[in-house]
Amino acid sequence: MALIKSISGIRGTIGGKPGETLSPLDVVKFTAGFGTWLMEQYPTNKKVVIGRDGRISGEMVRSLVVSTLNALGLDVVDLGLSTTPTVEMAVVWEKAAGGIILTASHNPKDWNALKLLNHEGEFISAEAGAKVLDYADKEAFSFVGVDKLGTCQVNDTYLQRHIDAVTGYALVDVKAIHKRKFKVVVDAVNSTGAIFVPALLKALGVEDIVVLNGEVTGKFAHNPEPLPENLVELSREVNKHHADLGIAVDPDVDRLCFVCEDGSMFGEEYTLVAVADYILSKRPGNTVSNMSSTKALKEVTLKHGGQYFPSAVGEVNVVRKMKEVDAVIGGEGNGGIIVPDLHYGRDALIGIGLFLSHLAHHKKSIKNLRAQYPDYFISKNKIELEPHVDTHAIFSKIGNKYKNNPVNTEDGLKIEFENDWVHLRPSNTEPIIRIYAESDFETKANNIAQRLMQDIREVMNE
């Protein structure tokens, strides 16, 4: 059981004691803290947009959030079953003070979370997050009397509005996609991707669609993180149905990856690389990804005459850097695509529209498209931590061991080895250290990661 409070939101497992899990009391306190911050920032705007993924606990958490916001005197626009990017866009369209997305993203079914948005439909800043945490911890909020209670309005129009925004985006070529007559297998992992992805594909002119795990039950058929080891069924079904490609999303539809026609992985790191290649071919400019992402994006950006800029890990950091350098495309190597002139948020739906446009113009198979990009391998690993482990001390000792190598401490610890790198950082959402290593050979990347994992264990056992 776990409860993780961070500047980006609150996340935890359902069931257990308050303060140790995501209990109803914690949901109420954190929602009240956020609502209080919103009212301070936008005293004349009482509107808050919410939406949720398909988790089993979603309706229970939704009821708590709506009631708490109403008790503060705030009016709720409830999108119901939705996606993270849809809620982000709806905040702007509704001219709301902010929004809350009820989703634990890629975490297993027993987790849920509140993701917090400002009036621009973007994740709140670290400073704002710290204030929300402080208000929640100190219970520094007050509820209104019966005559001033807020309202709740259900709005189910945003599925179509989001799809219309994607199909109407200048670089999404619906005619070219329709002409290719793609056959697509979708793994919707028993969440809202089952509603949104097939609807988008049909709007893009894709008529032959096979949906796996298409019931929105929240009982995920497999680990919901779209990693190769969790996409065995999708790979098999792409082969079985002789499909052109497979598409996998996570439960809140902000991460995206593809499977090639032979069942092999396109590679989640290369989702952003491919989409960026397409956009830069039409609209030259700068790109951004976090420092745990493949260096292939930098190479594609330079090829098109742009500049590449790394950021700290975390969507809010990527967005901040994108704004600083006026990037035309950015995101994260976990399959997160951010198209700034649509909205500043990871969005699998615009990612699908742009990727299929790229593939349609390529006029060959997805496997052939993948072959156009360099082969780098990122070994992604993690070490679980006991509570209250001092990760800063761990990174300091390891950094000292590799002091003769180029070292970056902006976000955890990144160490470079000639043409390879390894990045160690504590997760913002789970009690773990993530260890990512990239090389031109898979075994080499794995060996680098294993070496650093052993270093971490040795330091922890000292």
UniProtKB/TrEMBL annotation:
Tree of life domain: Bacteria
PANTHER family linked: PHOSPHOGLUCOMUTASE (ALPHA-D-GLUCOSE-1,6-BISPHOSPHATE-DEPENDENT), PHOSPHOHEXOSE MUTASE
Cofactor: Mg(2+)
UniProt-listed GO biological process terms: carbohydrate metabolic process; peptidoglycan biosynthetic process; UDP-N-acetylglucosamine biosynthetic process
Domain (Alpha-D-phosphohexomutase C-terminal): residue spans on this chain: 404-453
Family: Belongs to the phosphohexose mutase family.
Matching InterPro entries: A-D-PHexomutase_a/b/a-I (IPR005844), A-D-PHexomutase_a/b/a-I/II/III (IPR016055), A-D-PHexomutase_a/b/a-II (IPR005845), A-D-PHexomutase_a/b/a-III (IPR005846), A-D-PHexomutase_C (IPR005843), A-D-PHexomutase_C_sf (IPR036900), A-D-PHexomutase_CS (IPR016066), Alpha-D-phosphohexomutase_SF (IPR005841)
Spans traversing the lipid bilayer: none
Protein name as catalogued: Phosphomannomutase
Ranges where the Alpha-D-phosphohexomutase alpha/beta/alpha domain occurs: 8-141, 163-263, 270-375
Family annotation (PROSITE patterns): PGM_PMM (PS00710)
GO molecular function annotation: magnesium ion binding; phosphoglucosamine mutase activity; phosphomannomutase activity
One CC-aspect GO term: cytosol
Keyword annotations: Isomerase, Magnesium, Metal-binding, Phosphoprotein
Pfam families noted in UniProt: PGM_PMM_I, PGM_PMM_II, PGM_PMM_III, PGM_PMM_IV
